[in-house]
Amino acid sequence: MDVLKFGGTSVGSASTIKQVVEILNDSNNPKIVVLSAMSGVTNLLVGLHQAAIIQDKDGMEKIMGALTEKHHQAIDELFIDAAKDDVLQAINEYLETIYTVAQAPLQPTSYAELVTYGETLLTRIFSEYLTQQNQPNVLLDSKTFMHVGTVENPDVDQVSQLLKKQIEQHPECSLFISQGFVCLDENGALSTLKRGGSDFSATIIGAAIDAEAVQIWTDIDGLHNNDPRYVEETRPIEHLTYNEAAELAYFGAKVLHPQTVAPVIDRDIPVWLKNTFEPHAPGTKISNEHHNRGLKAISAKDGITAIKIRSNRMLGAHGFLKTIFEIFDRHETSIDMITTSEVAISLTIDDDKNLEAIVTEISVIAAVSVEQDHSIICIVGENLIADHESYKAFGLLNNLPVRMISYGGSKNNISLLVPSKDKIAALQYLNTQLFKLQGVMA
Length: 442
Prior knowledge:
Elements: E1 2-6, H1 14-25, E2 31-35, H2 41-53, H3 57-78, H4 81-103, H5 110-115, H6 117-132, E3 138-139, E4 147-149, H7 156-168, E5 175-179, E6 182-185, E7 190-192, H8 198-208, E8 213-218, E9 239-241, H9 242-250, H10 262-265, E10 271-275, E11 284-287, E12 294-310, H11 320-330, E13 338-340, E14 344-349, H12 355-363, E15 367-382, H13 388-391, E16 404-407, E17 413-419, H14 423-437
């Protein structure tokens, strides 16, 4: 059995939904299809929650109108006769429930309840459309099996037990539809896998059923060797190892959720990144297979804050770093990059909500300076440390405004910190120069 996930742009209209159905028909393998909400819908639902907080009635009605129009238009273009009436009735009932939740006094679970309705709406429409096309399918409610516990360490065994039991109840069916993004937390409360988490849903499900493969379908043909939004003539990468893909996703590759590959690594389930609008393009395969060593890709992560800590207490002393790490741990703030000298520590974080409190604590024992609006540029390849060509990359740094370098913590990653205003120029420069070193122009 395969798992196929389709993102919001892949199911953003009636025409793209029809394209997805054609892709499903290309293979006779049993499959679970994991769907995001239609493009733009989750943003509308987030806006609805924000309007509900301040009881902006006009804003809520405007958003409900947009939600209704978007889904009604898709239904009008997909369905005919009695089937259309039945689907409209079901979707209207969902929409009424959404509005009721928004109007009622908000509860701790109201946010998750509202923002996850986009997937519920779309999967109902999609399943009914398949039925109209004489394609038997079973619509699974992810709330009944995506009991992941903690998002950071999902309980795949629990998901497996619950999901397999449901699949076994339908031995005649080879096509299952379910929602991405939606889950239950360790307390059994409705929650989400965070924005973009449908990729993560797909690989959790893939691991849970020991899938042959997980396919993630988006609007781009695989993971590119640089960010095509800023760099011309990028090219898709045919093969990546799990570690390479994880590094690129964490450091900003938008086509893949950062936690996507984690559930499938130990089970050696390949992940394919494919383009819904060019379904026969090769895409990118992520697996344990090792192909070309050396440089593979460059990505960038924005919203980085650099913190420099200086204290003469560090000189010849031990335990100072431990004290600093404990401060960040108390404030639940992860560190991305770190370099040290005899009397100074430079580090970066991507979550600054507790920055003021962190700086206040550190200031008691050291001098602290903060620089915001930075980006981490990540250069990724297989075993870069052993690839002597990668050392030539350091010769290029004189032409870049680099504030920090991290090299050696991972065999697959060289990380550079630059001011965000210089990010695009740095990506373009490195793209040309690094791939020239390999003899391959991107």
